[in-house]
Backbone:
């Protein structure tokens, strides 16, 4: 089975910061990689699919890149509503990255 | 647009079978657009894919849960269901139903709101 890892597991950032989260697959998954945002008590929300395609309605400050085994999610200018946990997913999910307020 | 809603008991005793239903609205469950999925999240932990079912009835399960999981369709009610047998406290989690669509670029969207199931005597 393909294993997904994420780094960092958590980070503290300020409003306006550029934030980058990394996801790594244990073997090549081409571009079959999705990113989700989850806020406490809520279901995950799809942000990015197929590594770099922005889901409809998601702000353009979110972007994704990568292929093969290494992928990144970037938030270009962190907003107050972006403090949440982010998961990557191929078939299984990564362990998550919690973004909180510095 | 398709919307999903989970329902079922919030408390299950150890060794018994957990049963949940997901009602699909805004579209037919008999569509080739989605694999109907279950995902769970233990309190304070990450997301675990349980399995999914296609409109044809084909099922795909997480190998770690395969021996205990059954996912089925009820097309007359536009619902799909999860059964997880021989539960323990480790099965305590929020259970989400979701549509896995977008082939050949599969992703989970939409999601239900989730339902907490506690395994306790």
Residues:
């Amino acid at each position: 089975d393909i294993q997904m890892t994420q780094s960092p597991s958590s980070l503290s950032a300020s409003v306006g910061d550029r934030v980058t989260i990394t996801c790594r697959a244990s073997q090549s998954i081409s571009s079959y990689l999705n990113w989700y945002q989850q806020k406490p008590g809520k279901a995950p929300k799809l942000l990015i699919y197929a590594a770099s395609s922005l889901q409809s309605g998601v702000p353009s400050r979110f972007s994704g890149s990568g292929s093969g085994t290494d992928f990144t999610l970037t938030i270009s200018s962190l907003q107050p509503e972006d403090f949440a946990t982010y998961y990557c997913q191929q078939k299984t999910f990564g362990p998550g990255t919690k973004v909180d307020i510095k | 647009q398709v919307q999903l809603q989970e329902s079922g008991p919030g408390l299950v005793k150890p060794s018994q079978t957990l049963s949940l239903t997901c009602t699909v609205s805004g579209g037919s469950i008999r569509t080739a657009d989605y694999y109907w999925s279950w995902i769970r999240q233990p309190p304070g932990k990450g997301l675990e894919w349980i399995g999914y079912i296609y409109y044809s009835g084909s099922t795909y399960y997480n190998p770690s849960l395969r021996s205990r999981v059954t996912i089925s369709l009820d097309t007359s009610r536009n619902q799909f269901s999860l059964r997880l047998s021989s539960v323990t406290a480790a099965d305590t989690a929020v259970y989400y139903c979701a549509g896995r669509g977008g082939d050949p670029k599969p992703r989970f969207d939409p999601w239900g709101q989730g339902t907490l199931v506690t395994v306790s005597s």
Notes: Chain A has a mean pLDDT of 96. The interface with chain B takes residues 1, 31-32, 34, 36, 38, 42-46, 49-50, 53, 55, 87, 89, 91-96 of chain A (CB under 8 Å). The first strand of chain A starts at residue 4 and ends at 7.
